[in-house]
Specification:
Blueprint (H helix, E strand, L loop, with lengths): L5 H12 L20 H14 L39 E10 L10 E6 L23 E5 L5 E7 L4 E4 L2 E3 L2 E8 L2 E10 L16 E2 L2 E5 L2 E7 L2 E3 L3
Parallel strand pairs: 1-11, 1-12, 8-9
Antiparallel strand pairs: 1-4, 2-3, 2-7, 5-6, 7-8, 10-11
Amino acid sequence: MSDFSRRDFVHGLMGLAAGGTLLLPRGVQATPASGTLGAYGAFLEAEKQQEAAPPMGKKWAATEDNILGPYYRKGAPFRAKITPPLEAGTVLLIRGRVWGLDTRKPLAHAVLDIWQANAKGRYDNDDPKNPPAANLFLNRARLLTDETGYYEFETVHPGAYQTGPNEWRPAHIHYLVRHPRYKDLITQLYFTGDPHNKTDQFIKQSLIIDLEKKKVGGGTYESGTFNIVLAPA
């Protein structure tokens, strides 16, 4: 071993086995920096502030609720990417802030449960004969808002799916938003231009957002903002 002795290493392992505190061994150096985000960092922050602006310009009201649906699962992992690696579909970036209706201030550390169908309109648990493993969560995640109430996640544009002979659910993303001082909110996010919006029995106009196509590298992705206002408990 190079910068610290084998004795230090063994003592550290013994401490863990005995329920001791995890400590860095003697002689370990800080990880060196390799630069800063510079202009790109400033660009990201400006984009974050612009696209997640507070819901001003209209009457302040709590975000409307929507049905839970049959496919919710508890215990999804905390991560910022909803879909598995290389998931098929149009890449979609959703960002926004969670606000308190009473204070009109952003809410830090709100918990968002996010779940959705894949690009073909299938959920990971929509086949009772082939349920997912208990620890496998596809197209699901939980998020925490930061100190400015901001959240962001990457996914793919969900597909519509048929619920009856002549009934379709439009593309949508499910939300369950919780904060200790506010009422839990169960809602859904919809997208302008979906052909099934006009016939869906559950959709609410206030939950429909516009999407913008953006270019990055040699490809494109969709981007949208969904701000959430919670009613006090």
